[in-house]
């Protein structure tokens, strides 16, 4: 069965006329919108809707798909699926999302016993909890490009966090590949382009890795954080995506329960946060 035709029929059936400002009418046999109503809302002929639902029309335009998505009240995920099964590139916003909504804020607030940070797709840190600041340093003491992880990794000598030799190479490769993926999704984002241009100009390593044109998403790593308060803590880093968050990444650091690292993190939760409190007064 043609997937495009299948979802189009299913989504038309679930939309009631009153949901889109049309009178419900009487004697309706259609479970949702009639083909005539969808055609009117999308600005196409009824015959074309029929051919789409029968799988006889090919190569619908991006403009038509957008009109169908609006008429059918599709979610972002459903709209993207419609574009994919039609063989059309998914539309992307001009600017990279940098707003942290209330639901993501609540997640960070509730996960107080582990270090949590929220990053944009360009790896700018946008939000963090106190334990993150105690473990890795307080991001509020930095500003501008200094809050960008890729910039810090490739332009500064970071001594507070180390990986194994293999892990370090994978981590750096993933960061560059992830940044290239972001450029593909947000080609018109000026700050993102400026970041890449500065990295290309100032880091030979970044330029060499960028030239490899690797595209991927950074999802996990293991690293050792060297703290002044409790010594070394080895943590697992996982990068999570929050549905509906606008391409934000929730980065969480965890340790094995009952381990020496867990004991150190517990101590840091007390001693490190007190240190932060003293510095803010």
Mind sketching the topology for me?
Elements: H1 3-14, H2 35-42, H3 46-53, H4 62-71, H5 76-86, H6 102-110, E1 116-119, E2 125-128, H7 130-136, H8 149-155, E3 161-162, H9 165-185, H10 190-202, H11 204-210, E4 220-227, E5 231-241, E6 249-254, H12 260-279
Antiparallel strand pairs: 1-2, 1-6, 3-4, 4-5, 5-6
Helix pairs in contact: 2-3, 4-5, 7-12, 10-11
Question: What would you note in describing this structure?
Answer:
With 281 residues, the chain is α+β, with helices and mostly antiparallel strands. It is 47% helix and 12% strand. It has a six-stranded antiparallel sheet, with helices on both faces. The longest helix has 21 residues, at 165-185. The relative contact order is 0.11.
Helix and strand composition category: alpha+beta
Gross geometry: elongated
Question: Can you give the mean pLDDT?
Answer: 88
Oligomer: single chain
Annotation keywords:
single chain; 281 residues; alpha+beta; 12 helices; elongated
Quick summary of this structure?
The protein is α+β, with helices and mostly antiparallel strands. The protein has helices at residues 3-14, 35-42, 46-53, 62-71, 76-86, 102-110, 130-136, 149-155, 165-185, 190-202, 204-210, 260-279, and strands spanning 116-119, 125-128, 161-162, 220-227, 231-241, 249-254. A hairpin with a 5-residue loop joins strand 1 and strand 2.
């Amino acid at each position: 069965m043609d997937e495009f035709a299948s979802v189009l029929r299913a989504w038309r059936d679930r939309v009631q006329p009153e949901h889109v400002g049309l009178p419900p009418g009487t004697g309706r046999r259609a479970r949702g919108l009639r083909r005539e109503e969808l055609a009117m809302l999308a600005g196409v002929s009824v015959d074309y809707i029929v051919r789409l639902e029968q799988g006889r029309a090919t190569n619908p335009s991006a403009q038509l798909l957008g009109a169908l998505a609006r008429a059918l009240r599709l979610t972002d995920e459903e709209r993207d699926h419609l574009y994919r099964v039609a063989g059309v590139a998914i539309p992307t916003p001009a600017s990279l999302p940098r707003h942290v909504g209330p639901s993501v804020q609540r997640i960070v607030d509730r996960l107080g016993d582990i270090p949590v940070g929220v990053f944009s797709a360009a790896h700018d840190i946008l939000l963090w909890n106190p334990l993150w600041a105690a473990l890795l340093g307080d991001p509020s003491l930095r500003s501008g490009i200094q809050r960008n992880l890729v910039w810090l990794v490739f332009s500064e000598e970071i001594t507070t966090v180390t990986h194994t030799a293999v892990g370090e190479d994978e981590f750096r490769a993933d960061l560059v590949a992830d940044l290239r993926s972001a450029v593909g999704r947000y080609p018109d984002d000026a700050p993102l382009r400026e970041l890449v241009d500065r990295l290309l100009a100032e880091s030979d390593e970044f330029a060499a890795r960028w030239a490899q044109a690797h595209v991927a998403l950074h999802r996990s790593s293991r690293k050792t954080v060297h703290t002044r308060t409790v010594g070394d803590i080895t943590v697992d880093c996982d990068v999570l995506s929050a549905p509906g968050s606008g391409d934000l990444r929730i980065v969480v650091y965890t340790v094995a329960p009952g381990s020496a690292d867990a004991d150190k993190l517990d101590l840091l939760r007390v001693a490190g946060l007190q240190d932060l409190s003293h510095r803010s007064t």
